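Review form for a predicted model. The reviewer records the input and the model, then writes brief findings.
Reviewer: anonymous (R2)
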Amino acid sequence: MNKPTLIFIINPSAGKGKSLSKDLVLSHWPNHQVIFEEAYDGRAERILNYLEQGITEFVVAGGDGTVNDIAKLLVHTNASMGIIPLGSGNGLARDLGLPTEPLEALSVVSNGTVRAIDVGYLNGKPFFCTAGVGFDALCAHDFAKKKHSRGLWNYIKIIFERYFSYTGIEARYQNGIKRYFSITFANAGQFGNNAYIAPHARVDDGLLDCAMILPHPKWRFADLGIRLISKRLNGFPYFEHLNFKDLKLEDLSDLHAHIDGEAVDLEGPTVHVKIEEKALKVII
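Model under review:
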């Protein structure tokens, strides 16, 4: 009997990936033919070719950006995806309850079950964890431009550099223009590193969360940070929240955005965000 095929995709630049030898991976799937691929630009064609061959098992070892790159190709297919978190934030993996240690995650994913989750779209681009505009998008763009290694501490440094001078972004929602510090569209509850921007968000509830932080006195910086990591942002007096399936923002004053933490530029001053329910199968 032919062994089923599994495609194991790893981001070679992820530091934690050095602990994942091919022999170690093969030991967790002894009854599979495992094909190893590296994540890089242009990989989409090969993944789509595997799907055309009828291969339905994929495992992605990388951060949220790598997960997004592969997951968007598997939406609305019969394929399922496991995640071995190797990034600095690992927002989706954490939200799914996966271990952040690669060896532990290997054991969980190789013995896991399939769960269907929702997918968000920002101007047609899929996101699985969070997307947004405002301060977080500005930091994502700064992070992408700087010549340094990826990692939590470098991101925190950018936050400190930008936070105290940032004045916000204007956007029109329904009939009124308002200034915001940040607007986050959340499928999962957190950005990553257990920073919970939408503590009540669920990846399979058929809804997206819109978490809006309003301009606030900068001396509230520590309070805001503590509330993010303690899941108490709902009590912050400069916070607004709503659930939605389809939402549009217009007349944005800044075209910077992020999708799953990766910097993107909007083509115009309008953001249209919607959900597709149970569109991606993940292994947990």
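Findings: The longest helix spans residues 152-163.
Further findings: The radius of gyration is 19 Å.
Recommendation: see findings above.
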